[in-house]
Amino acid sequence: MIGRVTEEHKTNYIVNIDDSEYRAVVRGKFHIGDEATPEFPKVGDYVSCSLISDNEVVIESVEPRQSVIVRKTNEGNDKQVLVANVSLIFIVVGLDGDFNMNRIERYLLLAEQSNIKAVVLLNKSDLVTDKESFKERVESRVGQVPVYLISTKDGQGMNVFSEYINQDTTAVLLGSSGAGKSSITNWLLDQNKQSVQSVREDDSRGRHTTTSRQLFTLPNGGFLIDTPGMRELGLVGDIDETNDSIFLTIEKLSHQCKFPNCDHMKSAGCRILEAIKQGEIESAQLDNYLKLKREQEFDDSKTDKLSTYKYKKKQKSLQQSYKTIRNKKYKERGSK
Ligand SMILES: Nc1nc2c(ncn2[C@@H]2O[C@H](COP(=O)(O)OP(=O)(O)OP(=O)(O)O)[C@@H](O)[C@H]2O)c(=O)[nH]1
Ligand SMILES: [Mg+2]
Ligand SMILES: [Zn+2]
To answer: How is 127-165 classified by DSSP, letter by letter?
Structure first.
Protein backbone atom coordinates (compact mmCIF):
# COMPACT_ATOMS: atom_id res chain seq x y z
CA MET A 1 0.00 0.00 0.00
CA ILE A 2 1.20 3.51 -0.81
CA GLY A 3 0.54 6.25 1.73
CA ARG A 4 1.76 9.74 2.51
CA VAL A 5 3.63 10.79 5.66
CA THR A 6 1.67 13.49 7.44
CA GLU A 7 3.60 13.65 10.71
CA GLU A 8 7.06 12.70 11.88
CA HIS A 9 7.76 12.12 15.56
CA LYS A 10 10.76 10.86 17.49
CA THR A 11 10.32 7.19 16.68
CA ASN A 12 7.09 6.94 14.78
CA TYR A 13 5.14 8.50 11.98
CA ILE A 14 1.58 9.12 10.94
CA VAL A 15 0.80 7.94 7.43
CA ASN A 16 -2.35 8.69 5.48
CA ILE A 17 -3.56 5.82 3.30
CA ASP A 18 -6.80 6.27 1.35
CA ASP A 19 -7.95 9.03 3.74
CA SER A 20 -7.34 6.92 6.84
CA GLU A 21 -4.62 7.60 9.38
CA TYR A 22 -2.19 4.93 10.50
CA ARG A 23 0.55 4.96 13.07
CA ALA A 24 3.79 3.87 11.44
CA VAL A 25 7.30 2.74 12.24
CA VAL A 26 10.11 2.06 9.79
CA ARG A 27 11.65 -1.29 8.88
CA GLY A 28 14.87 -2.11 10.69
CA LYS A 29 16.97 -1.52 7.57
CA PHE A 30 16.44 2.25 8.01
CA HIS A 31 18.41 2.04 11.25
CA ILE A 32 21.51 0.21 10.03
CA GLY A 33 23.55 3.34 9.34
CA ASP A 34 25.81 2.20 6.49
CA GLU A 35 26.00 3.66 3.01
CA ALA A 36 23.17 1.58 1.65
CA THR A 37 20.81 2.62 4.44
CA PRO A 38 17.79 4.49 3.04
CA GLU A 39 17.04 7.99 4.32
CA PHE A 40 14.31 8.25 6.93
CA PRO A 41 10.89 9.29 5.66
CA LYS A 42 9.92 12.96 5.97
CA VAL A 43 6.60 14.75 6.04
CA GLY A 44 5.29 14.81 2.49
CA ASP A 45 6.99 11.58 1.47
CA TYR A 46 5.07 8.87 -0.36
CA VAL A 47 5.87 5.57 1.30
CA SER A 48 5.24 1.93 0.62
CA CYS A 49 3.73 0.21 3.68
CA SER A 50 2.61 -3.13 5.06
CA LEU A 51 -0.30 -3.39 7.43
CA ILE A 52 0.53 -4.85 10.85
CA SER A 53 -2.75 -4.14 12.65
CA ASP A 54 -6.01 -2.26 12.09
CA ASN A 55 -4.33 1.08 12.60
CA GLU A 56 -0.63 0.38 12.29
CA VAL A 57 1.73 -0.02 9.37
CA VAL A 58 5.43 -0.60 8.76
CA ILE A 59 7.13 1.69 6.26
CA GLU A 60 9.07 -0.52 3.83
CA SER A 61 10.48 2.12 1.53
CA VAL A 62 10.29 5.76 0.48
CA GLU A 63 9.21 6.57 -3.08
CA PRO A 64 11.54 8.80 -5.13
CA ARG A 65 11.07 12.46 -4.17
CA GLN A 66 9.88 15.11 -6.64
CA SER A 67 11.41 17.86 -4.51
CA VAL A 68 12.87 18.51 -1.09
CA ILE A 69 13.37 21.52 1.12
CA VAL A 70 16.60 21.21 3.05
CA ARG A 71 18.16 23.29 5.72
CA LYS A 72 21.73 23.46 6.81
CA THR A 73 22.29 22.03 10.23
CA ASN A 74 24.38 24.00 12.69
CA GLU A 75 27.34 21.75 12.00
CA GLY A 76 29.13 22.83 8.86
CA ASN A 77 27.55 21.78 5.59
CA ASP A 78 25.28 18.99 6.72
CA LYS A 79 21.88 19.14 5.14
CA GLN A 80 18.66 17.98 6.65
CA VAL A 81 15.48 17.37 4.67
CA LEU A 82 12.60 19.31 6.18
CA VAL A 83 9.77 18.29 3.87
CA ALA A 84 9.43 16.34 0.65
CA ASN A 85 7.36 16.57 -2.52
CA VAL A 86 6.37 20.20 -2.12
CA SER A 87 5.27 22.10 -5.23
CA LEU A 88 4.72 25.56 -3.73
CA ILE A 89 6.18 27.61 -0.88
CA PHE A 90 4.11 30.28 0.82
CA ILE A 91 6.43 32.66 2.63
CA VAL A 92 4.29 34.10 5.42
CA VAL A 93 5.27 37.44 6.94
CA GLY A 94 3.31 39.37 9.55
CA LEU A 95 2.86 43.10 8.95
CA ASP A 96 3.55 43.71 12.63
CA GLY A 97 7.01 43.67 14.18
CA ASP A 98 7.65 40.46 12.23
CA PHE A 99 8.22 42.31 8.97
CA ASN A 100 11.82 41.94 7.82
CA MET A 101 13.03 42.27 4.25
CA ASN A 102 16.20 40.25 4.78
CA ARG A 103 14.27 37.32 6.11
CA ILE A 104 11.95 37.33 3.10
CA GLU A 105 15.02 37.17 0.89
CA ARG A 106 16.48 34.29 2.86
CA TYR A 107 13.31 32.27 2.40
CA LEU A 108 13.28 33.12 -1.29
CA LEU A 109 16.82 31.89 -1.58
CA LEU A 110 15.78 28.64 0.07
CA ALA A 111 12.93 28.30 -2.45
CA GLU A 112 15.28 29.00 -5.32
CA GLN A 113 17.82 26.47 -4.10
CA SER A 114 15.06 23.90 -3.75
CA ASN A 115 13.75 24.75 -7.19
CA ILE A 116 10.25 25.31 -5.86
CA LYS A 117 7.94 28.16 -6.81
CA ALA A 118 7.40 30.74 -4.06
CA VAL A 119 4.71 33.28 -3.20
CA VAL A 120 5.04 35.96 -0.52
CA LEU A 121 2.03 36.48 1.73
CA LEU A 122 2.00 39.68 3.77
CA ASN A 123 -0.38 38.63 6.54
CA LYS A 124 -2.08 40.77 9.23
CA SER A 125 -2.79 43.47 6.66
CA ASP A 126 -5.67 44.49 8.95
CA LEU A 127 -3.08 45.91 11.35
CA VAL A 128 -1.58 48.56 9.07
CA THR A 129 -2.98 51.57 7.24
CA ASP A 130 -0.22 51.76 4.61
CA LYS A 131 -0.34 48.12 3.52
CA GLU A 132 0.09 48.99 -0.17
CA SER A 133 3.44 50.58 0.58
CA PHE A 134 4.61 47.35 2.26
CA LYS A 135 3.55 45.43 -0.82
CA GLU A 136 5.38 47.83 -3.14
CA ARG A 137 8.51 47.66 -1.04
CA VAL A 138 8.58 43.89 -1.17
CA GLU A 139 7.71 43.78 -4.87
CA SER A 140 10.60 46.07 -5.68
CA ARG A 141 12.98 43.58 -4.07
CA VAL A 142 11.71 40.18 -5.16
CA GLY A 143 11.51 40.40 -8.94
CA GLN A 144 8.93 38.06 -10.48
CA VAL A 145 7.77 36.53 -7.20
CA PRO A 146 4.07 37.28 -6.57
CA VAL A 147 3.26 39.26 -3.40
CA TYR A 148 -0.16 39.38 -1.75
CA LEU A 149 -1.72 41.21 1.16
CA ILE A 150 -3.87 38.92 3.27
CA SER A 151 -5.56 38.81 6.66
CA THR A 152 -6.92 35.78 8.44
CA LYS A 153 -8.73 38.19 10.77
CA ASP A 154 -10.94 39.94 8.24
CA GLY A 155 -10.54 37.51 5.33
CA GLN A 156 -9.00 40.13 3.07
CA GLY A 157 -7.08 38.66 0.13
CA MET A 158 -7.68 35.09 1.31
CA ASN A 159 -9.14 34.10 -2.07
CA VAL A 160 -5.54 34.00 -3.31
CA PHE A 161 -5.32 30.43 -2.07
CA SER A 162 -7.93 29.12 -4.48
CA GLU A 163 -5.78 30.53 -7.27
CA TYR A 164 -2.72 28.60 -6.14
CA ILE A 165 -3.97 25.38 -4.60
CA ASN A 166 -5.60 22.63 -6.61
CA GLN A 167 -5.75 18.88 -5.98
CA ASP A 168 -2.24 18.38 -7.37
CA THR A 169 -0.66 20.99 -5.09
CA THR A 170 1.38 20.39 -2.00
CA ALA A 171 2.03 23.78 -0.45
CA VAL A 172 4.14 24.51 2.59
CA LEU A 173 3.84 27.52 4.89
CA LEU A 174 7.19 28.95 5.94
CA GLY A 175 7.77 31.97 8.14
CA SER A 176 8.76 33.02 11.61
CA SER A 177 6.87 32.08 14.73
CA GLY A 178 3.78 34.22 15.10
CA ALA A 179 3.49 35.16 11.42
CA GLY A 180 0.13 33.38 11.23
CA LYS A 181 0.90 30.07 9.50
CA SER A 182 -1.42 28.01 11.70
CA SER A 183 -4.14 30.66 11.45
CA ILE A 184 -3.96 30.28 7.67
CA THR A 185 -4.06 26.47 8.02
CA ASN A 186 -7.19 26.65 10.14
CA TRP A 187 -8.77 29.11 7.74
CA LEU A 188 -8.13 26.81 4.77
CA LEU A 189 -9.34 23.72 6.65
CA ASP A 190 -12.32 25.71 7.88
CA GLN A 191 -11.62 24.07 11.24
CA ASN A 192 -9.54 24.98 14.28
CA LYS A 193 -7.21 21.99 14.04
CA GLN A 194 -4.00 23.84 14.78
CA SER A 195 -3.37 25.77 17.99
CA VAL A 196 -2.70 29.44 17.62
CA GLN A 197 -1.19 31.75 20.21
CA SER A 198 -0.87 35.50 20.48
CA VAL A 199 2.50 37.12 19.82
CA ARG A 200 4.44 39.10 22.43
CA GLU A 201 3.14 42.63 22.56
CA ASP A 202 6.44 44.46 22.76
CA ASP A 203 8.22 42.88 19.78
CA SER A 204 5.61 40.71 17.96
CA ARG A 205 7.67 37.58 18.47
CA GLY A 206 5.73 34.34 18.35
CA ARG A 207 5.72 31.70 21.05
CA HIS A 208 6.74 28.69 18.95
CA THR A 209 3.25 27.28 19.22
CA THR A 210 3.55 24.76 16.40
CA THR A 211 6.33 22.32 17.23
CA SER A 212 6.38 19.91 14.31
CA ARG A 213 5.63 19.80 10.63
CA GLN A 214 2.23 18.48 9.70
CA LEU A 215 0.55 17.77 6.39
CA PHE A 216 -3.19 18.36 5.99
CA THR A 217 -5.56 17.43 3.20
CA LEU A 218 -7.59 20.47 2.19
CA PRO A 219 -11.27 20.34 1.26
CA ASN A 220 -10.39 20.71 -2.43
CA GLY A 221 -8.00 17.73 -2.30
CA GLY A 222 -4.79 19.76 -2.23
CA PHE A 223 -2.23 19.37 0.54
CA LEU A 224 -0.92 21.96 2.98
CA ILE A 225 2.03 21.60 5.36
CA ASP A 226 2.07 23.77 8.48
CA THR A 227 5.52 24.20 10.02
CA PRO A 228 7.00 25.59 13.22
CA GLY A 229 8.52 29.05 13.17
CA MET A 230 11.97 30.26 12.23
CA ARG A 231 14.12 27.87 14.14
CA GLU A 232 13.23 25.31 11.50
CA LEU A 233 15.61 27.03 9.14
CA GLY A 234 18.46 26.42 11.51
CA LEU A 235 19.62 28.58 14.36
CA VAL A 236 22.84 29.38 12.56
CA GLY A 237 21.03 31.08 9.72
CA ASP A 238 18.57 32.75 12.03
CA ILE A 239 20.90 34.55 14.34
CA ASP A 240 22.52 36.86 11.85
CA GLU A 241 19.62 39.21 11.42
CA THR A 242 19.07 42.38 13.37
CA ASN A 243 15.84 41.20 15.01
CA ASP A 244 17.67 38.30 16.54
CA SER A 245 20.87 40.09 17.33
CA ILE A 246 20.64 39.04 20.97
CA PHE A 247 21.30 35.49 19.83
CA LEU A 248 24.34 36.61 17.92
CA THR A 249 25.55 38.52 20.96
CA ILE A 250 25.21 35.46 23.15
CA GLU A 251 26.85 33.26 20.52
CA LYS A 252 29.80 35.64 20.30
CA LEU A 253 30.12 35.96 24.07
CA SER A 254 30.17 32.19 24.41
CA HIS A 255 33.53 32.13 22.61
CA GLN A 256 34.96 34.10 25.50
CA CYS A 257 33.89 31.60 28.16
CA LYS A 258 36.81 30.05 29.98
CA PHE A 259 35.90 26.49 29.02
CA PRO A 260 35.08 25.58 25.44
CA ASN A 261 32.32 23.27 26.62
CA CYS A 262 30.84 25.84 29.02
CA ASP A 263 27.18 25.13 29.77
CA HIS A 264 26.52 28.81 30.55
CA MET A 265 24.64 27.72 33.65
CA LYS A 266 27.04 27.61 36.53
CA SER A 267 30.48 27.17 35.02
CA ALA A 268 33.26 29.28 36.45
CA GLY A 269 34.57 31.84 34.02
CA CYS A 270 31.36 31.92 32.01
CA ARG A 271 31.35 35.14 30.02
CA ILE A 272 27.61 35.00 29.46
CA LEU A 273 26.75 34.72 33.16
CA GLU A 274 29.10 37.64 33.67
CA ALA A 275 27.18 39.62 31.04
CA ILE A 276 23.93 38.90 32.89
CA LYS A 277 25.49 40.12 36.12
CA GLN A 278 26.60 43.28 34.34
CA GLY A 279 23.10 43.77 32.97
CA GLU A 280 24.27 43.45 29.36
CA ILE A 281 21.75 40.70 28.67
CA GLU A 282 18.75 39.33 30.56
CA SER A 283 18.67 35.86 32.02
CA ALA A 284 15.40 35.19 30.18
CA GLN A 285 17.25 35.83 26.92
CA LEU A 286 19.89 33.29 27.88
CA ASP A 287 17.19 30.76 28.80
CA ASN A 288 15.57 31.21 25.43
CA TYR A 289 18.90 30.86 23.65
CA LEU A 290 19.78 27.66 25.53
CA LYS A 291 16.36 26.23 24.82
CA LEU A 292 16.64 26.84 21.09
CA LYS A 293 20.17 25.45 21.01
CA ARG A 294 19.13 22.29 22.83
CA GLU A 295 16.10 21.76 20.65
CA GLN A 296 18.13 22.12 17.53
CA GLU A 297 20.94 19.84 18.61
CA PHE A 298 18.40 17.27 19.69
CA ASP A 299 16.52 17.60 16.44
CA ASP A 300 19.69 17.29 14.39
CA SER A 301 20.99 14.37 16.37
CA LYS A 302 17.71 12.53 16.17
CA THR A 303 16.77 12.92 12.57
CA ASP A 304 20.02 12.97 10.71
CA LYS A 305 22.40 10.06 11.01
CA LEU A 306 25.37 12.06 9.84
CA SER A 307 24.55 14.71 12.41
CA THR A 308 24.28 12.11 15.12
CA TYR A 309 27.77 11.08 14.28
CA LYS A 310 29.01 14.66 14.20
CA TYR A 311 27.11 15.50 17.37
CA LYS A 312 28.80 12.66 19.19
CA LYS A 313 32.14 13.62 17.72
CA LYS A 314 31.64 17.19 18.88
CA GLN A 315 30.71 16.07 22.37
CA LYS A 316 33.81 13.95 22.41
CA SER A 317 36.07 16.73 21.23
CA LEU A 318 34.52 19.07 23.81
CA GLN A 319 35.25 16.52 26.50
CA GLN A 320 38.78 16.16 25.23
CA SER A 321 39.52 19.87 25.18
CA TYR A 322 38.12 20.07 28.67
CA LYS A 323 40.40 17.24 29.74
CA THR A 324 43.42 18.92 28.16
CA ILE A 325 42.73 22.12 30.04
CA ARG A 326 42.19 20.23 33.25
CA ASN A 327 45.38 18.22 32.86
CA LYS A 328 47.31 21.37 32.07
CA LYS A 329 45.97 22.87 35.30
CA TYR A 330 46.97 19.87 37.35
CA LYS A 331 50.45 20.00 35.83
CA GLU A 332 50.76 23.69 36.54
CA ARG A 333 49.68 23.13 40.09
CA GLY A 334 52.04 20.16 40.46
CA SER A 335 55.04 22.10 39.20
CA LYS A 336 54.51 24.91 41.72
N1 LIG B 1 -4.35 40.98 13.46
C2 LIG B 1 -4.11 39.78 12.93
N3 LIG B 1 -3.63 38.79 13.69
C4 LIG B 1 -3.39 37.60 13.11
C5 LIG B 1 -3.63 37.35 11.76
N6 LIG B 1 -3.29 36.07 11.47
C7 LIG B 1 -2.85 35.53 12.64
N8 LIG B 1 -2.92 36.45 13.63
C9 LIG B 1 -2.55 36.27 15.04
O10 LIG B 1 -1.14 36.07 15.14
C11 LIG B 1 -0.85 35.20 16.26
C12 LIG B 1 0.05 34.07 15.82
O13 LIG B 1 -0.64 33.27 14.90
P14 LIG B 1 -0.26 31.75 14.63
O15 LIG B 1 -1.15 31.29 13.53
O16 LIG B 1 -0.23 30.98 15.88
O17 LIG B 1 1.24 31.92 14.09
P18 LIG B 1 2.24 30.76 13.58
O19 LIG B 1 2.92 31.33 12.39
O20 LIG B 1 1.51 29.50 13.39
O21 LIG B 1 3.26 30.64 14.79
P22 LIG B 1 4.15 29.35 15.27
O23 LIG B 1 3.25 28.17 15.34
O24 LIG B 1 4.66 29.75 16.59
O25 LIG B 1 5.24 29.21 14.24
C26 LIG B 1 -2.22 34.75 16.78
O27 LIG B 1 -2.56 35.56 17.88
C28 LIG B 1 -3.15 35.01 15.62
O29 LIG B 1 -4.48 35.26 16.04
C30 LIG B 1 -4.15 38.44 10.97
O31 LIG B 1 -4.39 38.34 9.77
N32 LIG B 1 -4.37 39.63 11.61
MG1 LIG C 1 1.79 27.64 14.21
ZN1 LIG D 1 29.63 30.17 29.42
So the answer is: G-S-HHHHHHHHHHHHTT--EEE--TTT-TTTTHHHHH-
pTM tops 0.85 = no
- Tell me if residue 5 falls in helix, strand or coil: strand
**Whole-angstrom Cα distance, residue 63 to residue 135?**
39
CATH numbers and ranges of domains, the chain: 2-62 (2.40.50.140), 68-232 (3.40.50.300), 235-335 (no CATH)
Q: Judge if the beta carbon of residue 90 lies within 6 A of ligand 1.
A: no
Tens digits of pLDDT across the chain (336 residues): 999 999 998 789 999 999 999 999 999 999 888 888 889 999 999 999 999 999 999 999 999 999 999 876 555 566 778 899 999 999 999 998 888 887 888 888 888 888 999 999 999 999 999 999 999 999 998 888 999 999 999 999 999 999 999 999 999 999 988 999 999 999 999 999 998 988 887 777 887 788 889 999 999 999 999 998 755 454 333 333 333 456 667 877 888 898 888 888 887 899 999 888 887 777 877 887 787 777 666 555 555 555 555 556 656 665 665 556 556 656 666 554
- Write the residue with the smallest CA distance to atom 8 of ligand 1: 180
CA 227 – ligand 2 centroid, Å: 7
